[in-house]
Design brief:
Layout: H1 22-31, H2 40-48, H3 51-61, H4 68-80, H5 88-93, H6 101-113, E1 128-129, H7 145-148, E2 157-158, H8 180-190, H9 209-220, H10 225-228
Antiparallel strand pairs: 1-2
Amino acid sequence: CSSDLNLAWSPAFQWDGAYTKLTDAIAQPLTGHVEMGMEVKHIIDYLQSDADYLDRFKKVFHTNRIHYEFVLKALAQFTGYLTSYNSRYDRYMIGQETFTAQEERGLALFSANCATCHTPPLFTDYTFRNNGISFDPALKDLGRMSVTGLQEDSLSFKVPSLRNAYISSNYMHDGRYNTLHQVIDFYRFGVSPRSNVDPLVRGGIRMTDAQAQDLFEFLRTLTDSSFLRDPRFSK
């Protein structure tokens, strides 16, 4: 998933930036009631009962007991190590790969309309922006406003990286879109006219059907197959 890589460079985590430490962001899904909902004691007891985990923790942290802070540090170290930098785009940028004419056109379109927020090489500027997505009354997610309490932050969400976006469905903070084509069409036709929508996308991004396909083909070049197939991450 594009949002779960290159985390070492991120100054804040989650769509609303609620956490500024990776260890805190990792703790949330472990104990949060809408995700795993585990108690810390059960996490420790489970790991403590596994001889292999116990031995590994002893080698790294020099302790016979597994402590919760060590669990979070281990997970932070692993997730921070998940780096993607060997896509066709990356090889193209250093002259090791060529693009098709369609991909070249898509890159030009991306550079003119998307790169301010999805800034290379990480393909995010780590800001929080209102991209004009409609409010879901069932989800009731106000985005960054939930953290800052500021009305101007209503429905502002962290700009996600687009690396590996082609294989990272679903899309948007609430996963409402299944395909990249749907996302592109949203920016063409679906951006809300609300006053606090980011000026860069307010009114939508104009492009023809052919240009939309060019953009799609460029986004596919951000797929890092070597990262996705790395045997170290498949166990």
